[in-house]
Design goal:
There is one protein chain. The protein has 70 residues and is α+β, with helices and mostly antiparallel strands. 41% of the residues lie in helices and 23% in strands. Strands 1-2-3 form a three-stranded antiparallel β-sheet, sandwiched between helices. The radius of gyration is 12 Å and the shape is flat. It starts with 8 loop residues before the first helix and ends with a helix.
């Protein structure tokens, strides 16, 4: 669900919350150049830095989503 086309991060996170997004991937110019992003868990209100490499990103997503089943 792309919400990042304009606006400040705080506004974008509020928009994601209104849409009941569980996870938000925060990716700005700095993160992109570093090959990393912030993965925010909206339900638990916490975030972590993740790699943009597909395998590592998938692992981070599964780790967060897998916590629901424990």
């Amino acid at each position: 669900l792309p919400i990042s086309e304009g606006g400040r991060l705080k506004q974008q996170l509020k928009r994601a919350d209104r849409r009941e997004a569980r996870l938000v991937l925060v990716l700005g110019e700095d993160e992109l150049s570093a090959g990393k992003a912030q993965l925010k868990d909206m339900l638990k209100n916490r975030s972590k830095q993740v790699s943009l490499k597909p395998e590592q990103l998938a692992e981070a997503l599964m780790e967060i989503l897998g916590e629901e089943h424990h």
